[in-house]
Amino acid sequence: MRVLIIGASKGIGLETTRQVLDAGHHVRALARSAAAISISNSNLEKIRGDALKIEDVEAALVGVDVVIQTLGVGFGDLFRPVHLFSDATRVLIAAMRGHGVKRLICVTGFGAGDSSARISGLQRLPFQIVFGRAYRDKSLQERLIQESGLDWTIARPGVLTGGPRTGRYKILSDFSQWRNGIISRADVAEFLVRQIEDRTYIHQAPVLVN
């Protein structure tokens, strides 16, 4: 499969790039700092581009089978209005429709969309103070994806760690099960890679925790 990873230069995106390559797929890595990706592989194509520019995204989509969107913002950005997630997703959906690419796998987080109702009372206020702006935009991002007509899967990880890939995380697909917890970026990446060919979670937004 030819997989486009948006936001591939660090965090979950970089780990996903590694694991997609290990699984034998071809990766097209789109990021503003794509040249800094410290992976050398004949199946890796690094493309410098901006997820907010339709011309960059359209060029990256040519010949692609699956898109994995792994955007993030810095800690300092959490205290300013956040529009990156929804703005980039609008651009991506329009480009995917134009190129006939149907499969979209996206990372948001526990607390986005209807999972916000499962945040505990003790966590709710600090979560809103620190993450509220970003997660309001992630909720809008999820809504845009859910209304897109694409074959989408949304992954909602809990608190991210730099721990190893274990394969022992929980995939909570029912509202009654949803809860916060921790999970390594490597385990989130494993889930994303599985979705390239597994259609079990199409049109679902499971929560991922250890």
Automatic annotation (TrEMBL):
CDD domains attached to this UniProt entry: BVR-B_like_SDR_a
GO molecular function, one term: riboflavin reductase (NADPH) activity
Alphabetical list of Pfam families matching this protein: NAD_binding_10
InterPro entries per UniProt: NAD(P)-bd_dom (IPR016040), NAD(P)-bd_dom_sf (IPR036291), Polyketide_Oxido-like (IPR051606)
Domain NAD(P)-binding, chain residue ranges per copy: 7-198
Family matches, as SUPFAM superfamilies: NAD(P)-binding Rossmann-fold domains
Domain of life assignment: Bacteria
Listed name of the protein: Epimerase
Phylogenetic classification of the source organism: Bacteria, Pseudomonadati, Pseudomonadota, Alphaproteobacteria, Hyphomicrobiales
